[in-house]
Amino acid sequence: MHYLVTGGGGFLGRYVVEHLIARGDQVRSFGRGAYPELETLGVEVIRGDLRDREAVQAACNGVDCVIHSGAVSGIGVLRKEFFEINLGGTENVLSACRRSNVRRLVYTSSPSVTFDGSDQHGADESAPYPRKWLAHYPHSKALAEQAVLQANDRGGLRTCALRPHLIWGPRDGHLVPRLIVRAQLGKLRRVGDGSNLVDTIYVENAAEAHLQAADSLADEHSPVAGRALFLSQGEPINCWQWIDEILALADLPPVEKSISLAAATRVGAVFESAYRLLRIGKEPPMTHFLAAQLARSHWFDISAARRDLGYHPRISTAEGMRRLGEWLRSRS
User: Fold this and answer.
1) Which terminus has fewer CB within 10 Å in the chain: N or C?
2) Which structural domain, as residue segments, surrounds residue 250?
3) DSSP for residue 127
4) What is the pLDDT of residues 290-318, one digit of tens each?
């Protein structure tokens, strides 16, 4: 089979590519970087931007399945890039799939598309999209997800969306390094009372689920076609205990200082207003969305993924943490 992986040089995308190569598939990667490490694996690397309709079309030509994991993430307050890449780029991918007669599309979504700032305890796929959005990232991803699901069974294209929650593991360039840097600078604060439970997912488990979804969509009666599915380790953990465990792997002390959710929300509002007014493209150190994510519980029922996708988190959280620790030590 011939696959296109958008964002193939990214954290999750690279693992998806490696898993496809390992089982003998032909892989093409599309992204803004060069990624010689992928070329070494035998991957066809195409450089381009998801906003470039013709470049996306060229990347989709001749493939059997697209795994669309390319996106811009974060808590930035400037709207344009999020919607141009996450929504507009996804619309370009859908258009290219139709024009190139691609039969399968797996979209990497996010559980944050259902987050309205309140606690989520065992939420399943019936959870609605929020009426009010706390950040541009989840809003743009939700609109893209809806476009993907609405495209299912049109022109011979079968689609699904996967919602992996808090992806982590070796080669993480975002979540873990940011926690460590903020801790080293003495700027990491516990938000809320520290009792909130969250779901996470080890990166290789997330990658394997994408392959399972792609394989399922080969069946014209696939139970996942036209649907979104939550993914996680299947075992909610205390958010701040987990953060302390990550810090311990980097030989750093646990988080000691804290701030209430209400105070963090006020601080976030000030930063958001200032960054928006001054047109600052960087991420604020705190926002309303980030405060709620750090203080609220958000864990999910993954029964649908287990039943209809055959998903099982093969690598346990304990084993994943061991591998993460080895990777962190190799970088020190």
Assistant:
1) C
2) 2-323
3) P
4) 999 999 999 999 999 999 999 999 999 99
Number of other CB atoms surrounding residue 195 within 10 Å: 11
Quickly list H helices, the chain: 11-22, 36-40, 53-60, 79-82, 89-99, 136-150, 175-184, 203-216, 239-249, 261-277, 288-295, 303-304, 317-331
Catalytic choice (3, 35, 107, 137): 137
Answer whether residue 328 is part of any domain. no
247-262 pLDDT, tens digit per residue, is: 999 999 999 999 999 9
**What CATH number is associated with residue 71?**
3.40.50.720
User: For 81-119, how does the pLDDT look when each residue is reduced to its tens digit (9 = 90+)?
Assistant: 999 999 999 999 999 999 999 999 999 999 999 999 999
| Structural domains in the chain (count) | 1
> Whole-model pTM?
0.97
The verdict on whether 15 is a catalytic residue reads no
